[in-house]
Every structure is written in C-alpha cells, then in structure tokens.
Design brief:
Number of domains of chain B: 2
Strand content of chain B: 25-35%
Number of helices of chain A: 4
Structural class of chain B: alpha+beta
Order of helices and strands of chain B: EHEEHEEHEEEHEEHEEEHEHHHEEEEEE
Distance between the termini of chain B: 56 Å
Helix content of chain A: 10-25%
Strand content of chain A: 35-45%
Shape of chain B: globular
Shape of chain A: globular
Radius of gyration of chain B: 21 Å
CATH superfamily of the largest domain in chain B: Probable tRNA modification gtpase trme, domain 1
CATH architecture of the largest domain in chain B: 2-Layer Sandwich
Strand order of the largest sheet of chain B: 11-12-13-10-4-14
Structural class of chain A: alpha+beta
Largest sheet of chain B: 6 strands, mixed
CATH topology of chain A: OB fold (Dihydrolipoamide Acetyltransferase, E2P)
Oligomer: heterodimer
Number of strands of chain B: 20
Helix content of chain B: 10-25%
Chain lengths: 125, 372
C-alpha cells in the first residue's frame, strides 16, 4: 500500500518503500491554469526538504516546486517535456514530476495527510 | 484592516456580474477587478479569438472626448502623431511623450468631426487627463466619458457577427469609426483591436453594456475571453503593453514605433521630446525593441537578462511567455542596436542558465486586419 502526503506549498508525495513520487496537487494546477513548461531536476541531484527541485510554468507565470523531503532524485517524468498539460489533466497520476530516494523517513511526520490538506485548502479560499 | 483607504478599493466594470456568471477568475488589474480567464482557460480562449470571435471587457480603459476649435492642432502639442491629417471617421494610434522623449502612454485617437475621441490605458487615465488639462485645457474642453463601457470583439468571425446586427459595418475598414445601433443600443465602433485579428472595439453607454455583451455572447461564434489571453494575443501580434514594453524610459524610436511619428511631424517637431526623438530617427537609437524567440521550450519572462554569445549583457526582456498560436515561448524586449539584427543569436538568462534564442521579426503571428 502506498501512502500519500502533502505540503503547504501544494506538492504531493506518494511513498512506496524508501522511494517517493512527487507532483503538484489538483488545487495547485487549478490555481496555475494551463501548464506550458516544466523544468525537472537532473537524475542524481540531491535535494533538501523545502529546497528548489523543479519549476512549473503556466501561460502567466513561473512557480517553484519544492522537495517535500530530502533525498536523491532517481527518476524524472520525461513525458512532461512534450506534454506539460499532463500536469493539468492528471496532476496526481501521469502528471508526476520526479521520484526521490528518501534520505530520512522521519521527515514524513511534518507533512499533512489527505484530510489535513483538504482542510488546509478550504481555509485558503 | 486597511480597506478603508480609498486606493485599496477596487473598481468594477458594468460587466462584473456577467463575468461572475460565466465563472471568471477575477484578479486586480489597474485598480479594477477584472476577469483574467474563464473556465475554458487562457489557451482555449486565445485559440478561440484566433479562430472565431472573442469578447473582451476593456471597460477599465479611459475614454476621453476633446472639444474645441482646432482640437487636433492642440493635441499635436502632446503627441508625435499626425492628428490634423487624420480624416474624419478615422482612427490613429499615437503616444503621449515627455520632454525627455519618453512615453507617458499610448492611445487611440478618432476624428469625429466636431470632436476627438480618445481611448487611453486604464493605469494611465487619471494622469493622462491631468496631462491633457494642463497642456491644452485652456483651449480645449477635456471630458472623461466615465459613463461608457468598452468591449472588444476580436477574431476572424467578429465582422460577420457585427454585420448580422448592423449590416452597414461590413463597409468599415481597419482603423475607421462608425456610430451604429446594435440591438437598438447606440454604439461607437472602431475597427481595431489588440490581438492582431480583425474585429471591433465597441464603446457603449455603461447602462447598456451588459445587454450588449449578452447580445454578442448569444451569437454562436462568440465566447468570452479574459485578460490572460488578451496578453498572449497581443504579445504574438507584437503589440506593446504600456508599463512593460514602453514607458517613460523608452522613446518611440527605441520602441520601434517610428510609424507612429507622422511624416509632417518629422519636419516640424513641436511635440514633447521632439529634439531627442527626431535625432534618434536620423541617427538611430542606442537600443531597439525586437522580437525574441527562445530556441528551447522554456518561457523567458519580463526582466530576463539578454546576453550576447560572449555572455555580455545586451538587453532585457519586457514581455515574455507562451504563445499558444506559435506553440512555444515568445518574447519581446530591448537589445543594443549592434545585437538587434533579425536572426542574430543571443542568450536569455533564465534561472541563472543562459539559453539560446534569436532575434525575430514581429509580429510572431501575422496581422489579419481588414484593410479593405
């Protein structure tokens, strides 16, 4: 069973063993509007919790995507290069950004579960 | 709470309730609550305006009437355009310049026989009206038409839609004016716009604006388009956005708007900053506004640094983003004259990384104006 956690910067991370798959939430994509470009980290790059990991650009603006946890990038979603609209159409599915080998699973404790994240975005509107 | 300060209160256009009804995402813009997009999204709205007809609410813009003998001659003391030579019923693009040759605003001027009709930018309108009153107010009556809304219908099917309501508009050519009834509402049309497409800007009494908008939206070809797509459309069309591509630090010659300096005005001058502007016209400007086409997929946004092959800074992006019709990133900006040749290779420093781009001809998407 995988477990999904959320950040207050609107990233999600799906945990399977010591690998986390990361993307942006449906709320985030709806706020951005049409995504036209995604810049992904290099495989092997070490990221820190809350540090810059990727960039997502809509027609209007560029936004940073932060790493929910520290770790090393093990894979990136090459499909986003040719089809960045996947971030809009399937934000928590085919629109994933990158995978991470998690350095310290203890850092998971600081993230929100789905219920807490839902409450969090309700409080934003 | 600081909302009691008058400057914090956002104004609404007469179409505000209609925008809400159509599900618009509303953002603050130039002191107004404006629709940045509808549920269709910026790309779909952009493509609709290129393929059919998009309806824009631009009621935040300023509409001004100049009355008085020789209003055209008076206005010429503030702009480099040939206004005296503007035939009745015709519209011209011009610029308010300052003594340093910079641009205070860009505007449209229509000769309506007994008066001039001006459309100015929302963010500049208060300053423009003060500038008009200070400059020519002793001779000319300056009236803001605050009780009028402004709609734009843009796209290859806009003319057919308007002709269905007012057949006589089929005769109108690009940059001409007509007073017509649309659904019984007296409207002032100019065949012009800010998308590069054929279409009309429609001045309408504020009280009738919603009825007119509903009338137009009831036509099969018409969908509402927000400010987001308005920006991507005008960028692809190579049109300047005041406060970004032109401002008080850019001259008309640097902005590549030489065509807006009337032939007669080049000889006679007599507008603010004429010495500098006319000198640049003959000697060349130190920098020029150009189109810039990134070679990769990454958009280069406003304020992105432009460097030459050796990494030396040569300029800056003033408008940049994604062009839905082009299908990739597009930009415009200012570069040193030596780097401004069409086809020249430059680099755009995006997130610290230089990325190749080339100087490109504007517009990125050909204009399709109805020149008749």
């Amino acid at each position: 069973m995988s477990e999904m956690k959320f950040t207050n910067e609107h990233e999600w991370i799906r945990i399977e063993g010591d690998i986390g798959t990361i993307g942006i939430t449906d709320y985030a994509q709806s706020q951005l509007g049409d995504v036209v470009y995604v810049e992904l980290p290099a495989v092997g790059k070490k990221v820190t919790k809350g540090g810059d990991a990727a960039v997502v650009e809509s027609v209007k603006a560029a936004s940073e995507v932060y790493a929910p946890l520290a770790g090393e990038v093990t894979a990136i979603n090459d499909h986003l290069t040719g089809n960045p609209g996947l971030v809009n159409s399937a934000p928590t599915g085919d629109g994933w950004f990158f995978k991470l080998k998690i350095a310290d699973k203890g850092e998971l404790a600081g993230l929100m579960d789905e219920g807490a994240y839902k409450k969090f975005i309700e409080g934003l509107s | 709470m600081t909302a009691d300060s008058a400057s914090d209160v956002l104004l609404r256009t007469p179409l505000h309730n209609l925008h809400r009804e159509f599900g618009a995402k509303i953002v603050p813009f130039a002191g107004y609550e404006m629709p940045v997009q509808y549920p269709a999204g910026i790309i779909a709205e952009h493509q609709h305006a290129r393929a059919a007809a998009g309806l824009f609410d631009v009621s935040h813009m300023g509409q001004v009437r100049l009355d008085g003998p020789a209003a055209a001659r008076a206005l010429e003391t503030l702009v480099p355009g040939d206004i005296e030579g503007l035939p009745q019923g015709h519209t011209r693009y011009t610029l308010f310049t300052n003594e340093a040759g910079g641009i205070l605003d860009d505007l449209m001027v229509t000769n309506n026989g007994d008066h001039l009709f001006l459309v100015v930018n929302a963010a500049c309108k208060a300053a423009d009206i003060a500038h008009l009153k200070a400059g020519i107010g002793a001779r000319i009556k300056v009236t803001e038409l605050a009780d009028r809304a402004l709609l734009a219908l843009q796209g290859p099917q806009a003319a057919a839609v308007v002709a269905r309501l007012a057949p006589e508009t089929a005769r109108m050519k690009f940059m001409t004016f007509g007073r017509v009834r649309l659904g019984g509402i007296e409207c002032w049309l100019t065949r012009s716009g800010y998308t590069g497409e054929d279409g009309f800007e429609i001045s309408v009494p504020a009280a009738s604006a919603e009825r007119l908008a509903r009338l137009l939206l009831a036509e099969a070809e018409v969908k509402p388009v927000g400010l987001g797509a308005r920006d991507s459309l005008r960028l692809e069309a190579g049109l300047c956005l005041y406060g970004h591509d032109i401002d008080t630090t850019t001259t008309p010659v640097e902005a590549n708007l030489n065509w807006a300096i009337g032939k007669r005005r080049r000889a006679g001058g007599g507008f603010p900053g004429a010495t500098k502007i006319l000198n640049q016209l003959t000697e060349g400007a130190p920098r020029l506004r150009v189109g810039i086409l990134p070679e990769g997929r990454a958009p280069a946004r406003e304020h992105t640094q432009v460097t030459d092959a050796a990494g030396k800074p040569v300029g800056e992006i003033t408008s940049g983003g994604y062009g839905p019709t082009v299908g990739g990133p597009v930009a415009m900006g200012y570069v040193a004259r030596a780097a401004a040749a069409e086809g020249a290779t430059v680099n755009l420093v995006v997130r610290g990384v230089p990325r190749p781009a080339r100087i490109a001809k504007l517009p990125f998407v050909p204009h399709r104006y109805h020149r008749g």
